Write a sequence for this structure.
């Protein structure tokens, strides 16, 4: 499931993901993202993942397709999770994201206020 976080404002969109993300949920999330881009021509993400967050195959493919077609609109991505996997993922992905103009950072859940400040700054 995904929940839009109340701190979201302007081009900064925060979502909390938990459990399995289905194709229907992914489509709903994509619609929210498209609205932000329509209004601001850019989007900065804070993605808070709980320990059970995962994507179904079709939802993951849709997420990747959306990201690739909107890569020029993505400015920052803050991944908030208590997971060594996501910490390593961000560290490995940062150089590639930077090549296409995306800033990406990892934050632990207790640093979510810092993550919001970074995304909005």
């Amino acid at each position: 499931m995904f929940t839009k976080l109340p701190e979201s404002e302007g081009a900064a969109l925060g979502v909390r993901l938990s459990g399995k993300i289905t194709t229907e949920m992914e489509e709903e999330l994509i619609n929210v993202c498209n609205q932000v881009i329509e209004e601001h021509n850019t989007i900065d993400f804070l993605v808070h993942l709980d320990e059970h967050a995962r994507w179904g195959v079709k939802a993951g493919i849709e997420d990747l397709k959306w990201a690739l077609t909107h890569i020029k609109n993505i400015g920052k991505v803050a991944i908030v999770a208590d997971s060594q996997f996501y910490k390593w993922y961000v560290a490995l992905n940062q150089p590639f994201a930077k090549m296409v103009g995306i800033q990406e950072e990892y934050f632990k859940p207790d640093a979510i206020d810092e993550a919001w400040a970074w995304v909005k700054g």
